[in-house]
Design brief:
The chain has 418 residues and is of the alpha/beta class. Helices cover 46% and strands 9% of the residues. It has 2 domains: 34 residues; 341 residues, Arginase, Chain A, CATH 3.40.800. The structure holds zinc ion (ZN). One of its GO terms (biological process) is epigenetic regulation of gene expression.
């Protein structure tokens, strides 16, 4: 049965007219409500549908391209070399720039969700802004790295691990931000994983610049909890392992020292290089905090455990001794320095009590160690969970410049202090 909504006339009784009008208005409202609901559904569902289609397409593409490969199986070592040699990550031209690497894409910020994590997710940009505002760096002299592609990441990571990042729940576990689990993965890829991949590109490139110029600083990177097969502790990609494998193949070196002075144990690179005699690992960490990775601890060449509450003088004294031992144990061709600032007094996660001046002195000691031995050094900034970390890192870079441990550079007729 249908209701004759449009048959009203002025001859009809008033009460009847009103009833029909109410019915007409009610039906119109219902229609509008239905329309709005449909639009809302489409608005919410479209990204999911697009993402599903994209995934299906990429899965189809990867399966068809893998099935088109020759039947002869290429060994893992050759495949790794092939991937490294065909990578574009060494391409950015830095000949007229300072070997400080940063992209505005490093910084993570969306919908305020980054505020749910104690990590200052825009510290990388803040470091550069401090340096620029104080005349130690020009925007045009900063080296902008490329994003590490899937093929680049496969140099160290397994297919299974990279595929696991297509699930937002896994990314939420790795970044330790539970709400990330609720977000569609395309958004997580764009706003969280892309910035990380760009930072990975920066760490890989830093080794090349360090070999050319003696030193390089990636203002990001230092994801030392991630290994080829597993992420964790805010580390989704193993940038240090990737950097070193690229250096072995492209820079023709075979001895690398990792000096890991973040407050946490660097279990990612330790798992990746556990049985690799080309890599010497000096790790100075607090054994009473995350990650408690006892297997990885077996792979540290030189372990220095600094207990909770260790203060500046004691810390720097242990560092002096450790560097002396490392220098006599191993002669590297490249140093990768993981310079986490979570050793700072007051850091809620690091548990140590090193002052800002102590951090600056620490970085100076490591750069002096490299300079005295004429070993190229890569620095990555790694952990540092307080808003004050960016200021301390900027001050440390300024100190390295003032101490002559990183060279001045002439650019556009003006003397740049770094
Ligand atoms: Zn840390």
């Amino acid at each position: 049965m249908t209701i004759p909504l449009l048959t009203l006339s002025h001859q009809q009784p008033f009460w009847k007219f009103r009833t029909h009008r109410v019915i007409a208005n009610t039906t119109e409202s219902t229609r509008n409500l239905c329309k709005s609901t449909l639009y809302l559904f489409l608005a919410l569902a479209t990204p999911f549908i697009a993402y599903r289609c994209f995934n299906s397409f990429t899965m189809f593409w990867s399966s068809s391209s893998s099935s088109s490969q020759p039947a002869t199986k290429i060994d893992a070592g050759s495949l790794r070399r092939q991937r490294i040699n065909s990578s574009k990550l060494y391409q950015p031209d830095a000949s007229s720039k300072v070997p400080v690497i940063y992209s505005s894409y490093y910084d993570i910020s969306f919908l305020g969700i980054e505020k749910l994590h104690p990590f200052d997710s825009s510290k990388w940009g803040r470091i550069c802004r401090f340096l620029m505002s104080e005349g130690y760096l020009e925007k045009k002299s900063i080296v902008d790295p490329l994003e590490a592609s899937r093929e680049d990441l496969l140099v160290v990571h397994t297919e299974a691990y990279l595929n696991s990042l297509n699930n937002s729940v896994n990314v939420a576990r790795i970044t330790e931000v539970p709400p990330v689990a609720m977000l569609p993965n395309w958004l997580v890829q764009m706003k969280v994983l892309y910035p990380f991949r760009r930072q990975v590109g920066g760490t890989v490139l830093a080794a090349k610049l360090a070999m050319d110029r003696g030193w390089a600083i990636n203002v990001g990177g230092g994801f030392h909890h991630c290994s080829g097969g597993r992420g964790g502790g805010f580390c989704a990609y193993a940038d240090i392992s990737l950097c070193i494998h690229f250096a072995f193949v492209r820079l023709n070196i075979s001895r690398v020292m990792i000096i890991d002075l973040d407050a946490h144990q660097g279990n990612g690179h330790e798992m990746d290089f556990g049985n690799d005699e080309r890599v010497y690992i000096l790790d100075m960490y607090n054994p009473g905090i995350y990650p408690f990775d006892m297997t990885a601890r077996n792979y540290i060449n030189q372990k220095v455990e600094v207990v909770t509450g260790t203060a500046t003088v004691d810390y720097l004294d242990q560092l002096d001794k450790a560097l002396a031992v490392a220098g006599s144990n191993f002669a590297p061709e490249l140093i990768v320095y993981n310079a986490g600032t979570d050793i700072l007094d007051g850091d809620p996660l690091g548990g140590l009590k090193v002052s800002p001046e102590g951090v600056i002195k620490r970085d100076e000691k490591v750069f002096r160690f490299a300079r005295d031995r004429k070993i190229p050094i890569v620095m990555v900034t790694s952990g540092g969970y307080m808003k004050t970390s960016a200021r301390v890192i900027a001050d440390s870079i300024i100190n390295l410049s003032n101490e002559g441990l990183i060279e001045t550079n002439v650019h556009s007729g003006r003397k740049i202090m770094i």
